[in-house]
Amino acid sequence: MLFLYIKNLTANIKIVLTIVILTYILLIFPIFIRIDVAFTKDAKKILYKIRLFNLFVLFYGYVEKVNEGIAIHLSKRKAIIITNDKIFDVKNKIKPLKDYHVIRLFMQIDLGNKESILTSLSTAWSINFVTQYVEWFLENSKPYVKFNSAINVYEEKDLFCVKINATFVFNLLMVTISLIKILLEKTFYAIKYRKQQN
């Protein structure tokens, strides 16, 4: 009888440990999100694509300026509009996401001016100076970020195109912490609002 009790207890402990280990692995397992952004002078809109593990497309669409503010198009029929008076509040709303780290960053800029190649070259030189400073800054402040850039100058084309690829890494534990932060901020705000009303 005692033997069966110990055997069952051991089996239950193994199940519990297995669940704990699997939960821990799921919480800390790295998740990679890649965001591709492109802007062209002629289109006057920002194209974007968000991919999971660089394989599965989660969202894609474009961002454009409208009279009400900024429209983020998620599909042909669905869009999120951030009004002009709420644009500056976006920074506070994404504050809980500051712990999500960028590990790869690539920027490509295509320049062209039919009338004067010197204009494109001088612009490219200025941009190259900025990108070198960004590379130096990241090497000293965030050495885990792999930063690359490319500047292409075209002589017989009028164009200005910017492409940015960024890869973020996070895990479910970070997502859980971010959700807790958001809930706590909303709770504190609700309590503060009620006190002001009373």
Protein topology:
Blueprint: H1 2-28, E1 31-40, E2 46-52, E3 56-65, E4 69-73, E5 79-83, H2 90-93, E6 101-112, H3 117-141, E7 146-154, E8 159-170, H4 172-197
Describe the structure.
The chain is an alpha+beta fold. The chain has a domain at 43-93. The protein contains 4 helices and 8 strands; from the N terminus they run H-E-E-E-E-E-H-E-H-E-E-H. It has helices at 2-28, 90-93, 117-141, 172-197, and strands at residues 31-40, 46-52, 56-65, 69-73, 79-83, 101-112, 146-154, 159-170. It has an 8-stranded mixed sheet. The longest helix is centred in the first third of the chain and has 27 residues, at 2-28. 2% of the residues are buried.
Quick gist of this model?
With 198 residues, the protein is an alpha+beta fold. Helices cover 41% and strands 35% of the residues.
Shape: extended
Tally of alpha and pi helices:
4
Structural class: alpha+beta
Distance between the termini: 65 Å
Proportion of residues in β-strands: 35-45%
Order of helices and strands: HEEEEEHEHEEH
Low-pLDDT residue intervals, each spanning 5 or more residues: none
Q: Please estimate the helix content.
A: 40-55%
Spell out the key features of this protein:
198 residues; alpha+beta; 4 helices; extended
